[in-house]
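Re: the 931-residue chain
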Amino acid sequence: MKTKLILAHFLFLGLTQVSAQFKTTFPLPKEVAHGTLKNGMQYFIMHNEWPKDRADFYFVQNVGAILEDDDQDGLAHFLEHMAFNGTEHFKGKGIINMLEKQGVSFGKDINAYTAYDETVYNISNVPADNKTLLDSCMYVLHDWSGYLLLANNEIDAERGVIREEWRTRRNADYRAGEKIDKVVFQGSKYAKRNVIGDLNVINNFKYQVLRDYYKKWYQPQNQAVIIVGDIDVALIEKRVKEIFGSIPTPKKINKREYEKIPAQKENRYVLATDKELQRSGISLSYIRPKPLVQNETEMTKSMQESLAMQLMNIRFGEYILNNETAALSFGISNSNLSRLDSKFSLNIAPKKGKFLEAFSEAYREYERATQNGFTQQELDRLKTKMRSSYDNRLANKDKISNGSWAEQFQMYFLEANPVMTMDQEYKWMNSFLDKVTLEQVNAAFRALEPKQSLILSVSAPEDAATKFPEANEYWNALKTISNTKLEPYKEEELTASLVKEQLTEKAIVKTNDIKAFVNAKEYTLANGAKVIIYPTTLSKDQILFSAYSAGGNSLADWQDLPSAQIATGVASYSGLGDYKFTDLKKKLTGKTASVSPYIGGLYEGFNGSSNKESLTTLLQLTYLYFQHPRFDANTFDKIKEQYQNKLNNAHNSNEKALSDTISVLNSNYNKRNWLLNQDFINAFDLNKAKKFYTERFSNAADFTFLFVGNISEKDIEVINTYLGNIPSSEKTETYVDHKIYMKDGNTEKTIFRTMDTPKTTVYLHLENKDVIYSKKNQILSFIVSEWLKKRYLETIREEEGGSYGVQVAANLSQSPSPLYSLEINFDCNPDKADALIKIVHAELTRVQTENIPANMLEDIKQSIIKNYQEQIKENSYWLGALTSYVRNGETPLDMELLKNTLSTITAKDLKEFTVNALKKSNSVQVLMKAK
């Protein structure tokens, strides 16, 4: 819990030492069962019911890449991969196979990561009503502790997977970051490690070297078991003691050492350029030691700093939006750097060629705050915002996820970050906000000022025409600004009402029950607008809102599509009524309400949310987006600049070259399919954007407004007061189907690009307009994609070691007309590309000619049921289901209907669907290869 706080009234009886370095004075909540086994392993167990009937298992290793010897560079991460390739109790792919039979999916629910200082494994969303499964998950964690098989053949097979992960991750941002990290980590072992490792080591290490690392560092005193969910804590604690307590204490305990990043006497500068970089960045930073003791004083100081940094970032946002600037964004941050150190940074995204100007602007505003401080108005607004946020969080305290709790326990174990219940956090935070003064916040901010041992890093596209400022030019600018007396920040007082009109409730013409949704009602207002209210008890104080009207961008002439596509962006960032965007944010301080307009391909409308108290504000914003939108020329120019910045180095972007090629082939060069190029930007027209927006949001009678959550029939009065006063007409519109499809037949294209790290990217898209849309066919479509994922995981990743992973996505859409789509894509070793493409097509043939294995079909069905059980606990699911029902007439699923539908699906059904969908499909295949 990095900036989360703790109870003020705890009795501090002494330090609790959690790790070898960090200590805390704050005890864990009484709801947590925590202990240390005789072998040194810690455990954290907690009952939590979000989501209901689910449990998460985390296994935290306080070891990572920083502990590798030079001949082990990359083996901490390699070992993480090997944890899924055979253990004492689960041979081969036994862990994945066992869990997927219960609907727990690899990648989505079963995963891990390796960092410099820790390695963390997780099994999430496990059905908690299956006691045998809970035991099995504990045995998985048990085996991860010290019982990996690390078989020779499995190690060799995984080398290829790691090579392809290395290849996939080595993009321009990675390469620039690697160069900067050498300077940031100067003088420490961190400068010699990058987690994924040295390919020479990966390709050639002896088996025993990996086993040596495993034996040395995967020891119980470095490990923690975390189990959170809808469980019997006492029973799980008993099993944890039995299962993990049986692990013997190592004969030789290897002390976990911590690496400190040494301070450098001189300021440092690094310029990292790369031909493929798509953006420029400047960072002025310095390294800060993390506090080793988390106590009341330290946490109060941390929160004072947090307030100051939030205030500065709010100012930066206002400055960027309200002024002609040399930058696209400014910001400050305090980020994790290593186990013992963090990094404070002033971050700038300059416009092309304006490095020194952007740096100077950002530092000038930073220095303005340092010299003059923040204002009481600013602090009061932030306090109000935070109190409102905590009110909302407290009301929904039962919706803190298992994963969120598990991650807090992880940080408690690794760095002694305090953990508290929401009641405790709420009480502490309100006490803190009552006491903290402007003087304290300003003092905390001044203490953050970069003064010595500074690191100035610049990343940018490699361009011979760009003249980069010298390091001394930045340092001189910093010195000059620091020695200049700056005027204090000023702001205007905001007194105008949000909505000026005196609105009254209008008549309700008609009321209907929505029979497919219990307690849902539809109201037709006097202006013809339809309002649907669907009360739920899924979240104690959440209202989700959406609205739609048919038409969208389909009604724009092709020449006007660029302006139409930016119309809602201009409106959203221009403000509403009498308030520009930044003033509107101030006006809404303390309100838990947000609304965003959209214009999509087929529909326009709104998405939003609020709590009960702020429902009126949500409605006012919606009313203003209809009646008093703003189209500010400065906002328009800034949006245009953002697009131009994306385009500046786009000719060197391999990703854009690939996506553009795919886009034009998937649309068969349709002129309505604009690419991001200079013609697209030149076509932007503020007047056309405003005109199109106004047309799309001019007729309330053509809209349906939906509210789901903590809403009731009593709220129709206030809803009608605002939505009922939006003008309307008798005109009705629908979208136009422009029939944009790929070319009939099979289209293939290969593009060649200059690459720093050679790879081949494979993209295959199959499309069929003749597949009938139905719920059953949607499910069959999903099953086919899951079958292919499993096959490609086995063949392309595991057997061939040819790719880090193959993405497979299937979709059966209804609008504007039924369309089946299957997309497959992956990066791979260029030497293996031809063979892997043959495998892709062979598997597509397999799913049409062979029956899916019975056990695999059952596993996928279980996954569908499990996912549905999780989805129906969210208001967002029901808002989507309600929209589909009202707009398209789709009957909502319930558990009985889903299970009945799944029970009727056979291997024969799947083969028939697959043949129908794939055999007569059109296709686009694109390969991107290195020159």
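The mean pLDDT is 96.
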